[in-house]
């Protein structure tokens, strides 16, 4: 573990051993909760000032949760990877379909990048949106109908963006390891604040500082003007995948690839709590409740989990148990194992409608491709002549979807060994005919 402070900070004192016990009655007032309904992993979470939770999922959908059944916002043609609230409930999302969308009375596509949209942010004034893409572009989208603006080249794919409180600056984190500050009042000229050496995945802003998390597991806080280090909270867990800040309670939450949520106190720059949230798998998304008493988290499961912050030490790991592909591989026959690894995130084998990113495989064999009722297919499969048989399923995984059905939504999946393909087909022949 590496935790150090710059000359600007006081000594740290006790770190990982510091667990704040919940006051009597706290668990009754703030219980552990889950939000269930998505059909794929949770990629992003945002919470509005009035407590409405919005979720972005691999199932191509945005969910909006307000104390009852979720409202499903459909329109993305691929996984939804970024989500943010702005003033007056403005909700924005971005996805693997390269699109930036707003969800209001009249949902609309603001425009598209040429690659995955990894991040979106709304200016404090609510007059424009920033988005960053793995295509190496940062764009500003005015909400008054004006033309979009492209900021100067950041030099690499963009993982995160955030506006300063006054809206003058936009901070950007890149795959190349740069943390940049764009001066929007002076033509968007970028200034490098940090050159980390490994990709920077997430950032959050405070009063005069920027905190960021990187691929190599580093969690650092630097001065927003000079780039000087303020604190380092690296715990040798990698990569850092999620960050959230609650200003009024002086909290930052940091999620990593090993399933931990580290809670930082920004009043005196210390680690307040360090909580293992998952049994297996990463923490991909974090967001605080409006009052800062609850932390919402998402990862490989189809579920959003919410813990009372003051009682984190009272809970066992909850995430990482819903996904069947996290089961021990030795407990499954090879055909089922191939399905869990290659297909189960997007497809179900049970009858009826599915919230997953792909259509149900129930009744697959003998069915013409692109014909499951209610599923929005790509033009490639809508009206396709392919009929799913042992031979066509074998060809799909032998050649890969990008060659066998180019232009479809299916991600690149190849099963190289003929014996593994045979086992998968035998499993599907049985699993897709059951009730």
UniProtKB/TrEMBL annotation:
The Cytochrome c domain, residue ranges: 330-432
WD repeat segments: 35-66, 73-103, 110-151, 276-307
Short name of one Pfam family: WD40
InterPro entries tied to this protein: Cyt_c-like_dom, Cyt_c-like_dom_sf, Cyt_c_1A/1B, WD40/YVTN_repeat-like_dom_sf, WD40_repeat_dom_sf, WD40_rpt
Signal peptide location: 1-28
UniProt entry keywords in alphabetical sequence: Electron transport, Heme, Iron, Metal-binding, Signal, Transport, WD repeat
SMART domains: WD40
Name under which the protein is recorded: C-type cytochrome
Organism for this UniProt entry: Tropicimonas aquimaris
């Amino acid at each position: 573990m590496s935790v150090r402070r710059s000359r600007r900070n006081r000594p740290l004192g006790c770190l990982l051993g510091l667990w704040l016990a919940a006051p009597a009655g706290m668990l009754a007032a703030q219980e552990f909760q889950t939000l269930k309904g998505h059909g794929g992993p949770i990629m992003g979470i945002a919470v509005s000032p009035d407590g409405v939770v919005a979720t972005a999922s691999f199932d191509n959908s945005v969910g909006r949760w307000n104390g009852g059944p979720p409202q499903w916002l459909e329109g993305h043609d691929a996984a939804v990877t970024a989500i943010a609230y702005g003033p007056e409930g403005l909700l924005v999302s971005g996805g693997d379909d390269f699109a930036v969308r707003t969800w209001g009375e009249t949902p609309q596509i603001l425009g598209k990048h040429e690659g995955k949209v990894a991040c979106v942010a709304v200016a404090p004034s609510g007059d424009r949106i920033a988005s960053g893409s793995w295509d190496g572009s940062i764009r500003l989208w005015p909400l008054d109908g004006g033309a979009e603006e492209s900021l100067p080249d950041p030099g690499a794919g963009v993982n995160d963006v955030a506006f300063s409180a006054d809206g003058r600056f936009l901070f950007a984190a890149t795959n190349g390891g740069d943390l940049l500050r764009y001066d929007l009042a002076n033509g968007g000229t970028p200034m490098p604040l940090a050159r980390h050496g490994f990709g920077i995945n997430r950032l959050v802003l405070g009063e005069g500082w920027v905190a960021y998390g990187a691929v190599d597991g580093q969690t650092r806080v630097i001065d927003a003007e000079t780039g000087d280090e303020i604190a380092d909270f690296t715990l040798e867990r990698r990569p850092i995948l999620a960050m959230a800040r609650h200003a009024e309670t002086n909290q930052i939450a940091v999620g990593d690839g090993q399933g931990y949520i580290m809670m930082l106190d920004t009043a005196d720059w210390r680690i307040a709590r360090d909580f293992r949230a998952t049994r297996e798998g990463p923490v991909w998304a974090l967001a605080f409740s409006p009052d800062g008493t609850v932390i919402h988290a998402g990862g490989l499961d189809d579920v959003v989990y919410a813990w009372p912050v003051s009682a984190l030490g009272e809970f066992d790991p909850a995430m990482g148990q819903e996904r069947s592909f996290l089961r021990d591989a030795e407990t499954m026959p090879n055909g089922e194992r191939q399905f869990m690894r290659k297909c189960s995130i997007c497809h179900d084998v049970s009858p009826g409608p599915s919230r997953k990113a792909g259509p149900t495989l129930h009744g697959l064999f003998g069915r013409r491709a692109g014909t499951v009722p209610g599923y929005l297919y790509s033009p490639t499969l809508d009206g396709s002549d392919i009929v799913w048989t042992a031979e066509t399923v074998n060809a799909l995984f032998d050649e890969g979807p990008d060659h066998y059905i180019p232009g479809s939504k299916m991600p690149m999946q190849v099963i190289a060994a003929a014996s593994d393909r045979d086992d998968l087909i035998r499993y599907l022949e049985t699993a897709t005919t059951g009730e």
